[in-house]
Amino acid sequence: MTGTALLALMAAGSALGAHLLTRARWTWRTPRTAIALWQALGLAWGLASIGTLLGFGVAPYGQGILVGVARTFEDPGVLSSVRLAAVAAGLMLALLLIGVLLVAIAAVVRARRRHRALLALVAHGDPDVPGTLVLDHPVAAAYCVPGVRSSQVVVSAGTLELLAPYELAAVLAHERAHARERHDLVLLPFTSLRRIFPQSSIVARTLDAVELLIEMAADDRARRHRPAKELATALLRFASAGSAPTPVGTLGVIGADETSPILVRVRRLLAPAPLPRPMRGAMLAGATLVAVLPLILYAIPT
What we know:
With about 300 residues, this protein is mostly helical. The protein has helices spanning about 1-25, 30-60, 65-75, 80-120, 155-160, 165-180, 185-195, 200-225, 230-240, 260-270, 275-300, and strands spanning about 125, 130-135, 140-145, 150-155, 250. The chain has a domain at about 125-270. Helix content is about 70%, strand content about 5%. Strands 1-2-4-3-5 form a 5-stranded mixed sheet, with helices on both faces. β3 and β4 (about 150-155) form a beta hairpin.
């Protein structure tokens, strides 16, 4: 039962780690590394939770989880009803996690297709902002519609009136960073968990934390091309003006009802304090180990 016990500890440890990480502030100093750690914790929790159930169920075979599950289908009579129920629960949990992820992907794809069709009808190009679609709407809005082949950055007429040219350039750099780094794919597993556990406070806090880190990562990439002060002043203008909520399936500037995250991002832009590179490297190595270890434990005897 060594492998199963370790998987159970990993499942509990991943949940505890997620709880602690939602309260951490050092993650703001290295958002990309923190996002990788979040992804590793999520993957480890899923694999470890499934593996705990499967490992307990196939323990009588003594050949590890992967071989044990295969033998369950060949010779289920060796297992008691309780152990068969554990195997069934593990397989159902795996199917549930994968199924909800696929449903979330399909929903986002449909939403983006509808929104792209709507943009084709109501948005237009503008020579002052090449490569960007403009919506004739007075409320400030700026967002990116990610896509496999191409992504589209959209701004409202209210944004063009609100921001100075240099601030607009910084916001566009931020939105293009979302598209380039495919932050929509980063969010999908966490939004899927929210579908499975809609009442879970830790899942809600996790999603909020990852969304903020994604915005910070896009801020950092935009800062490579534009001065940090330009994006900071643009964010403050959005906050004071009251920006519109972004459509489903898109990534955009947080609205005025979430002023606190905007102020956090502004302070971070104006006074950056990145973690040293060796520390970031060690954290990435740790995240890799956390993600891979459950798979190793699947192969050792239970």
